[in-house]
Each structure stands twice: as C-alpha cells, then as structure tokens.
Write a structure and sequence with these properties.
The chain has 2 helices and no strands. It has 54 residues and is mainly alpha-helical. It has a domain of 37 residues. Helix 1 packs antiparallel against helix 2. The longest helix has 19 residues. It is elongated, with a radius of gyration of 13 Å. The protein starts with a helix and ends in a 7-residue tail after the last helix.
Amino acid sequence: MRDVREKQPRALAYLWMDANPDHPEAKMDYSVRDEISAAAYDGNNRAKGLAGQQ
C-alpha cells in the first residue's frame, strides 16, 4: 500500500504537466515533480507511528 501512495503524487505530476504544457514549470523536470515527491515523502514520514490503518 505504501508503494502505491508514493507513486500517486508522481502520476499526478505527469497528469498536471500533460494538462498544462504551456506552463513554465511543465518544462522544468525538477520543480514540479520534486516538490510533489518531497511533500509525499514528508507526509509518509509524519504518518509513521500514527494509530489507524496505514
């Protein structure tokens, strides 16, 4: 399950770039994908150890 959650933000980034090809950040491979990936990674780290289904 965790692997799926980590891949979802990357998939969303690709969808966003396809939907917004004229946006300057769509051409910057680093910016959008890395920000989304870092946010997902931070969220997963914060969720570790919390009660409930992970």
